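HUMAN:
Sorry, I am quite new to this. Are you able to go through these amino acid letters and fold codes? The numbers rather puzzle me.
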Amino acid sequence: MSVPRLKTALDAGAVSLPADGRIAVFRPRAGTDLSVLPKDRVHVIQGFKPDHDAFAALGFDTGAVPEGSYAAALVFLPRAKAAAHGLMAQAMALTGGGPVVVDGQKTDGVESLLKDCRKRAEVGEVVSKAHGKLFAVTGGDFSDWTASERTIEGGFVTAPGLFSADGPDPGSQALVAVLPNNLPKRMADLGAGWGYLAHAILERDGVDELHLIEAEHVALACARRNVTDPRARFHWADATRFTPSEPLDAVVTNPPFHTGRSAEPALGKSFIAAAARMLKPSGTLWLVANRHLPYEAEARADFADLQELAAVRGFKILRATRPRRPARGR
């Protein structure tokens, strides 16, 4: 993924960056071309582990959270409006009023954000290209946009932009409803989010150890607040690449199935394959998915036995047992 708007803006002088000082780059996705920026001054701030690792592998100074202050910032717009506002407030505060360059697609709400910024700050020339916009913001008070954690029903802590931030996902609730009262000793929650499934698992009997594996740094921070049981182990990691220290007895997951606005069933399939690699030969996978997602073929390829336990509210609950060895070379 290139950033034609950024190069166009810098080449045309529509956006200028300070000659000295660090530049914070918030939430770029893997594959985003940052070669137009001075690499030795860039601090990539990316809390999604696969994207974080991609920039670290390229030699960028990369972190999950900001560190200190910056001379300028570049914000790649997330879809969630509250999360976008939070990044803007954070970037403006850390730069002492900008410049903060915003780059986003129309489908991610960049036009709405542009209008909002114009009401409270100085906005420079707008570069429109490739179905998106880029502009620089200077000055203004954005403190009321600061993102904050919220407490939802059940006392759970969530944050803007997280999956099911307003309450437990119906799919996860459906999965909890069919889990047995007595569970295996060593378990994992793949894509644990802010911890709803993990919290429910640890209320069952039999569990000695539960690994919460979550790629989104903010989500995992919330999970630490929501799951305080000493049997919980927290891992900021890509669930599709994580390897436990010892094979597990069981895995539970409500896997993601979207990249941006597009459905990507391959994501869920990769979670199934990862679970098969993590489990003992006698291990069990419990999975919830939207009914239309074609996960059964993958599950049958990776496990000897597959059963649909329930179908409720547009979801299906699958239980797969006895992972195949080897897992097809993956």
Notes: The domain at 4-145 is CATH 3.40.50.150 (Rossmann fold). The chain is about 25% helix and 30% strand. Residues 75 and 188 are 34 Å apart (CA to CA).
